[in-house]
Fold these 2 entries.
Entry 1:
Amino acid sequence: MCSSWVVAVFCCLGQLCADQSLKPQIAAPQLATNNPTLTTVALEKPFCVFDSSLHPNKSYTIYLYAMKESASATSSLVTDGSSKPLDSTFQQTNGGQLGPYKAAAFHVPSCATPPRLVDAGDVSKVSDVLKQYLFRVGDDGTCLYDPNFLDVCNPPLAPDTTYRFKYVLIDSTEGTVKDQTLWSDPIKTRRVKHASQVDTWPGQRSGAMIVITSILSVLLFLLLAGILAAVSWAVRRAEGPSAEARCTPQTAQPSDPRPEVGSK
Amino acid sequence: MAKSEDCIHILQGLLVFGNVVIGMCGIALTAECIYFVSDPHGLYPLLEATENDDIYAAAWIGIFVGFALFALSILGIIGIIKSDRTLLLVYIILMLITFAFEMASCITAATHRDFLTPDLFLKQMLERYQKAEPANNNDKWMIEGVTKTWDKLMLQNHCCGVLGPSDWQEYTSAFRFTHNDADFPWPRKCCVMDAQGLPVNLDGCKLGVPGYYNSNGCYDAISGPVNTHAWGVAWFGFAILCWIFCVLLGTMFYWSGIEY
């Protein structure tokens, strides 16, 4: 228990672990934030995993096998009877449903000089860092439909499906399996919701709208009441005998002549 | 009678001042609404596609109301100085009609602002951005508008999606029908671009490596100008209307006191 904690801490410092019974890991989430997507999964390459099985003068290749988790009940062997690796393709296994298929073949990653994840910030180095550090399963959208494609085809995975992966060490000259990791933990691709499910209901009315509407309605009502009052008052005044004297603006000529007192 | 004369003059002075302010505010309202209608941020196609573009209708009403207020304020000043009953009655009635129109504009702007939620823009973006097969000419027009506007938004504001690039991963979209997820987890415009307009690192963008894709959403870039538009029309109009209310009440009082 204590040693696995130490191993975990060691891994977190960017050092790559040297324990053979490890499983394929998903790529570091701080580097590849969009992982897994609908149809792809980016896995960390097996650094220092097979080092105890490597002989100095031989050449090796690593194969990556992928299968749907539902297939683990039927068959999860990656070798046939005579320790030769299984040569199944995506189409033959129905996308990993009937058993594992070979998704990739690449060189053994260097344990002595692993890529530094901090270099991903450098524009000139990021391509190399990504290429050396991780492998994206499901990256190639065209190889399934290209009749001239002869390499290992790595077509997109199915959405909302759980997959498991395994790395296998192959001796290039003999073509036999030398070592393999365990099957990885189940990794599920993303699930997608339909765009019509987005709810566009605006929610409650905002306070601003209620204030504006209510106050303006009241003001308009008061204005209409005011014009009615003014008109009715003017009509009554025109009919009534006495005129208001306070604050009454006079038009061009005065209405009543004033008696002159002591003129000249 | 000196007190009555002073009273009249003070009221006349106040009303003339009130009308001068109304005239200036009318010009300001026209200028402000012309600015909003000219759509300096280019967001009108998004609103047109959501069929919720009534804040633009409110701005159009504001342009004409502003002119009307300016003209009516001149009429009002003349009427008050001449103390002419007919002129002032015409002024009051026309001003009431203008008040009603401006009230409609304010309420429309305030109400329709409430409809412009992030989910509304999200749905439009998912359904129309780079949709391949338009149903009719209207649909084609809206698709072109939405696509061009989003491309411009994402490039200029260094953003992606409404709330973030995960919008493209969480929902199906018209974009997803024509672009597979392995090559295009999100549109290319979401990647950080170099000087030539190409992604700096395509694999980094697809994987979501920080620094090679735009991780924040564009909603702030949309809601900022839209809010300015809606609140500018609604609250400035509201302020003008409160002032007009006071001036109109004073004018009615003045009118009712004029001798035949």
Entry 2:
Amino acid sequence: MRFSINPEMATQEVQPNETLTNLKAESDTLKTKLEDERAKLHDVELHQVAEKVDGLGQFIMKTRRTLKGHGNKVLCMDWCKDKRRIVSSSQDGKVIVWDAFTTNKEHAVTMPCTWVMACAYAPSGCAVACGGLDNKCSVYPLSLDKNENLAAKKKSVAMHTNYLSACSFTNSDMQILTSSGDGTCALWDVESGQLLQSFHGHAADVLCLDLAPSETGNTFVSGGCDKKANVWDMRSGQCIQSFETHESDINSVRYYPSGDAFASGSDDATCRLYDLRADREVAIYSKESIIFGASSVDFSLSGRLLFGGYNDYTINVWDVLKGTRVSILFGHENRVSTLRLSPDGTAFCSGSWDHTLRVRDRGYHLEPVTSATVCLILVSSSSCLSLMPVPSPFYFIRTASFITFGP
Amino acid sequence: MQDPDMGVKMRNQRLLITVIPHAMTGNDVIEWLIQKYNITEEEARHLGGLLVQYGYIYPLRDPRSLLLRSDDSPYRFQTPYFWTSSRWPASELDYAIYLAKKNIRKQGELVDYEKENYSILHKRINHTWDFVVMQAREQLRASKQRRKADRIVLECQEQAYWLINKPCPGAFDVLDLGPERCNVLSSRVALIEHSRRALGRNRVKSSICLESFMKYSEQYLHHDPIMSGCLPSNPWISDDTSHWTINTDMVGTPTRLRVERWSFSFMELLNDSMGRREFMIYLEKEFSAENLCFWVACEDLRHGESSKIILKVEEVYKNFLAPGAARWVNIDSKTMERTLEGIKRPHRFIMDDAQMHIYFLMKKDSYPRYLKSELYKNMLAKAIVPQETKKSVFPFMRRQRHSSPSPAMVTQATEDDGKAKGAGPTGTSSTTNSQI
């Protein structure tokens, strides 16, 4: 594994009497000082401020669509701006574009590499970008001509020296931001394949990135195996803020809808919220019974809910303000590798190593039983009715009556 | 990789004295998890099941089926020696010794895939095969000297370990972890630089920052479909795409929620192409439309093709910045000077300062006045509030799920017509000619 040269290291003049121990001592002192400075302005905790807000109670989430078609682990997915189409990529090199609403597959491309860990939909909806173990990010324009081989029009845009972990278009189809196992992020011009800016500062593989929704639209955050989440200025390539409180690899980062904060999910089984103006971590979302890493996170539209996909095959839904968990979702049969909210917030999609993608949203108290559901009704000790689809012919309701949920 | 935090804490359990000591029932495990972590039975079963799959607990009856049964099936804790977190990845040599032992102990005990693995290993590490066989014999001899109970326990533990580390082909491989990640040493000098910079930055008090999250969540509560539902219905639930059709860019009358959202922030107004259009109409009345046009042109420059940068910078200069320009924008002299200087060596960010200046000008001045204007108020008044769709009483009559034209297709059509590229039906494209 090659370690890319840090330009700062190269140009910095090291005094002859500065030994490694001196440097270590200095950097540790500065770090402590920084923590103290940050702590000075930390006058209240998030859950304290959130006391005056109503609690959410338990949420029921239901799977509305299951997308089957990948023959192997689904690694990444992204929504189209039209709110219903999805692109997903998998371990065997397949990239599929679906109309998630009808569950029809619209396009399929086979990449020449395996482990396609990154894929993104272009803002115009006319192209998709993907990459993985080939160390590249390629853009495929989507053609509706059934006879046309999509792979023929493929354009290689990004080149890294290690695997591609994440990619995202910026505000247009013309630029792509990538992150890689070589420890760097980079901004590319799609048309020419030219490198516009590179971002050095992570000390290990960079695993994820997200673009800021801010007014000035110039920053993005990345997370890596060095347990750090860095905020970058796209223009200058500078790292403007850095957060290091996770205890293990950061698998996913996502901005809070207002752009003032971001959440991260890590192998240390926690998700955390970092406020950019306060310049510190402000919340940890964890539970003793959650011992597997979080692989992907996203917020609901209002930022009140944080969805986390975990390596124990579940999705935990957190109340961002109170710090409590409002729901745990089962259904996937292997780890959840990717999770994104749809552009208008009506649903969220999760992709898993069990080869499927599921689109889910809220279930309500009164919902008709569809003919596709064969149900087992359980009356638990707290006299609350729960509904579980089970392939068992024991008890099933097949009438047009409404089933009420509990309190 | 295998995160050390995943280690299971030692716990108190009920001891069932059977032939095999220190066993517990599946039910016990689940009960304990529910108690200790205050979780539901479903979650406890799931978590317990994972512990079995990863080899921290193994079943005594039917060891090849790695499931946690919530009845009185007996289970045991795996010894830490064989924990996945301490002995991973499994060594080939160890596996060879294990298979050799099985083979020696009872001919024909090896299962098909084990036989295959055995012969593959035999070929691959043939040079140390004598060692393997010798070790296997030694271990078998040592185990014969143990008490029967202990011997059975050790055999079970070992078998459980190998069932997980070398699973039957086609079975669920729980240790499939994905491509390797590396961890490289950090650069101290860069860290010091960074910490120094960070110490100098301005920070805001937590109480102020956190208050803003409260406010934001509250403000957007009714706009969040997962929190509050959406009208007329959530397309994913009802299979009815009305919600999407009444919120397209080109719709005649917008919904009330949409128009309300324009008042939340200037960015919300600009991000919605209809909002932007309305704002433009307002600015035209105020004779300050050039500001928005300039902003749009700058966005186009920033996010457009690299090859067109020089051309676009010239256009922007000609239309907005040159003395006597048709749509001259009023920026302060210092910014103007800096920008004009920079135009001599054009790049995509050259207009940033000027663009920022105009953006904040609009935000502080025109935007608040727009929200108070008759134009906006009328828009809000005639905005529709869709009726909530009554949930169908006859569930079998599921709606047809209609497909929609792909954004790619629409663009192709416009391309064929020779119109501007990139003006998809849902794109918030900033091409100057199509919107204004």
